[in-house]
Amino acid sequence: MAVALNTLVEEAERYLGSAKIQDYCPNGLQVEGRPQVSRIVSGVTASQALLDAAVEAEADLVLVHHGYFWKGENPCVTGIRQRRLKTLLNNDISLLAFHLPLDVHPDVGNNVQLARQLDITVEGPLDPENPKVVGLVGSLAEPMTAGDFARRVREVLGREPLLVEGEQMIRRVGWCTGGGQGYIDTAIAAGVDLYLTGEASEQTYHSARENGVSFIAAGHHATERYGVQALGDYLARRFAVEHLFIDCPNPI
């Protein structure tokens, strides 16, 4: 079956509530392709590798978390930007991208989906007083060492995480997928035993060590693979179209 592109885009925007969320990039339809969609290819980032795979898969629409047209970028259509856009336009493929709306959604959001993968019970936002902080806080069913939790992360995500191990058992966890290392002090104030995100900065190590908490950087790409898959599955069920997630390897 096929669905009108505009109908699919409108439902995705409604479901995510993207119009209400301020972001660093446009959310929604970034490149318009053919008017009907019967096959969606999803991925984390609209890289050339993903676009080439989408062409090979005969996709009508590419759905991603990291799209194009970020604030502060050079707007000129040259280099890799020209090649990426040319691939989409020459093959009449649409690009649908959602950044923060796909981080914060209570069902298909990256943070909620990662919690489900790692068996963390969500308790609430990392900072209830600041809605701009997109992380969450939750608990484990049984306390475990930081090393054991890191092994769980490795088994689930298929990637060796960076671990700064504290001494206490892990019961309460704070997390923010992607590049959320700057929220570590917020997580510490929330009383977590371990804070998990995708990336690490030099000062993250010192914040963890000096505050006596554990820290895990599990990979920006690795922690953000699940929201776009869940959204793609939702749209596929909603409109009886095909959905294929393509994971282009990225060690960062």
From TrEMBL:
NCBIfam families: YbgI_SA1388. It comes from the Bacteria. A divalent metal cation binds at H65, H66, D103, H220, E224. SUPFAM superfamilies: NIF3 (NGG1p interacting factor 3)-like. GO terms for cellular component: cytoplasm. Coiled coil: none annotated. The gene is ybgI. GO terms for molecular function: metal ion binding. Belongs to the GTP cyclohydrolase I type 2/NIF3 family. Pfam families: DUF34_NIF3. This is GTP cyclohydrolase 1 type 2 homolog. The keyword Metal-binding applies. It comes from Pseudomonas inefficax. InterPro entries: DUF34/NIF3, DUF34/NIF3_sf.
